Amino acid sequence: MDDEEARTRLLDAAEELFYAEGIQAVGMDRIRTASGVPLKRLYRLFPAKDALVAAYLERRDRRWLDSLRAATAGAADPVGAVFDWLAAWFTEPGFRGCAFLNAAGELGPGAPAVVRRHKAALRDLLAEVGGSAERAEHLLILVEGATAVASLSPGPDPAPAHRARELAGRLG
């Protein structure tokens, strides 16, 4: 196994475990076991858990935003497409809310900078689809609120995204 494969396996294991169980609940030994990467190589690639957490969130940030951008690109109603995308995400197996807000909640001020960058990038994307910075602020509250409500639902529940979409339509 070369370093690229080891890195991918480590990030896959970290994402699965950190997202499902929480960052603080999962130790590096669990990541090593789940990934099958030797401990020495793990620490060579990620010298500290903080580095692995940041890399996991960076990768998730790119994938999440790229997927949302693709869903809104060319849509007749790009704002509606945001909430349709959320509704689909809320029903994915293992949905546990926003990984970035979860990380901020767990790690507080020590959360990696990618958490704040992700939210700024989301706000920028919402400004693009919504037409203004002011509307983006309103949409961001609807997106984050719908995500929080969906994460607390007992099962897969797209309803918070549908309700948020309805409210977004009233923003004018």
Q: What features would you describe in this structure?
A:
With 172 residues, this protein is mostly helical. It has 2 domains: 1-47, Arc Repressor Mutant, subunit A (Orthogonal Bundle); 54-169, Orthogonal Bundle (Tetracycline Repressor, domain 2), CATH 1.10.357.10. Helix content is 74%, strand content 0%. It has helices at 3-21, 28-35, 39-45, 49-72, 78-90, 99-107, 114-130, 133-152, 159-169. The longest helix is centred in the middle third of the chain and has 24 residues, at 49-72. The mean pLDDT is 96.
* Helical proportion, percent range: over 70%
According to CATH, what is the topology of the largest domain? Tetracycline Repressor, domain 2
Number of β-strand runs? 0
Count, helices: 9
- Name the beta content range: under 5%
Q: What global shape is seen?
A: elongated
For the residues shown, what is the average pLDDT?
96
Distance between the termini: 54 Å
- The SS-based structural class is mainly alpha
Classified by CATH, the class of the largest domain is: Mainly Alpha
> From the coordinates shown, what is the CATH architecture of the largest domain?
Orthogonal Bundle
Number of domains: 2
Low-confidence stretches: none
CA-based gyration radius: 17 Å
Q: Helix and strand succession?
A: HHHHHHHHH
